[in-house]
Amino acid sequence: MSLGGANFATVSPMSAVGQTGRTSARFRLDRFKREQYVRFAAPPIPQSVGVPRRTGTTGKWTLLGGLLALLLTATGCASTRPPEVDDWRYEAGRYSVSKPDVDYYSRWVIADIDKVVPLDDSNASKLINADGELIVNWPGYDEPVYHPVAYASYALDAIHAFDLTGDEEYLRRALGTAHALYAGATSVDENLWFEYPFDYAPREDPARTLPAPWWSAMAQGQAMSVFVRLYERTGDEQWKAAAERTFGTFTALRKAEGPWIVDIDDAGLLWLEEYAGRNEPLHVINGHIYAMFGLVDYYEMTKDELALRLFRGGAETLVRSFDHWRVPDGLSYYCAAEFCTDGAWQPGSYHRGVAHQLSTLAAITGDVRFSQMAALLLQDYAASGSTG
């Protein structure tokens, strides 16, 4: 297929689906000259998606717990929690959703553009290849690695830079990196998973090493935002289809083997897990919120009721768990699990980032409690004496 001078292979990512419904969603992005660029097309994606469309009244969807209970049975993960916790206990309907004027991923302004998304590749901390694709190097690996959050974060910054300047070189890089993100995805039951191919040890603790492959709600949410935003800027329906196939992963509950990103804790709170795999979930606060931002973008594009309900569940989790991970007059914990609270994992820069995320949630929902939570975290930071 050739669109706008850019040639893409027409290999369907679902063409090799086997009996398990699992295949590598890889395609080849041919090199192109910058002067040939008009507008990019998304990679060829099957139009069928694994996300059911809601019809009729929304009343039949008021009990998401029934859906989650069904998923628990289907995935065999009911045994990982006490039997009485068989549904999503808290889902408050008062959280509204509207996108704020500020970009909740890219907080920087145009004066910072050469630092965040430099076009001078000869002196850049982030390497870009000829196709506009971010190159990610990782300790212990001789070759570049597939890093979903790094790809998605860079693509979101490049989209923001394009919005600020109108320079289509930024859009070229956003699209090139988005293609790389999509190329490394794995398709399971027609849903796109952006799995990590390397082991990772949170806080460099070998006892907590997460063996590959592992998954991340933060990666799934940010990838979904990338696809939604590219669809909004290019009008290409295939980016919309990619977002839909990514959204299908947000009903994947915790299980012993295979991809998942949603955990319901013993209190019945819904968590969007940043480090999902065979280990116990950490319930990382900022990763949970970044996944919620992806749901906002998807809901704004589709008005999908399930996306709204998932967002509301995530919002309720933050309100109800706040006192557990907040440290009065100190730095908040990196996550809500004992690994963080008992180990005093309290990075200063992370603390300030979560405060900003909470302020953003206040703008999205109109709920003053998130503003109050953000203000408390900033007061705690000042009292802590941290300079991180």
Biggest sheet statistics: 3 strands, antiparallel
Number of strands: 9
Average of per-residue pLDDT values: 80
Output the CATH topology of the largest domain: Glycosyltransferase
Determine the fraction of residues in helical runs and give it as a percent range: 40-55%
* Domain count: 2
Low-confidence stretches: 1-86
Structural shape: globular
Number of helices: 11
CATH class of the largest domain: Mainly Alpha
**What is the H/E order?**
EEEHHEEHHEEHHEEHHHHH
Q: What topology, given as strand order, has the largest sheet?
A: 3-6-7
CATH architecture of the largest domain: Alpha/alpha barrel
Gap from first CA to last CA: 49 Å
Rg, Å, rounded: 20 Å
Supply the helix-strand structural class.
mainly alpha
Q: Strand content of the residues, in percent?
A: 5-15%
Can you walk me through this structure?
The protein has 2 domains: 214 residues, Glycosyltransferase (Alpha/alpha barrel), CATH 1.50.10.20; 63 residues. The chain starts with a strand and ends with a helix. By secondary structure, it is mainly alpha-helical. The N terminus is likely disordered. Helix 3 runs parallel beside helix 5 and helix 7 runs antiparallel to helix 8. The protein is globular and about 50 Å long. It has a 3-stranded antiparallel sheet with strand order 3-6-7. A two-stranded antiparallel ribbon has the order 1-2.
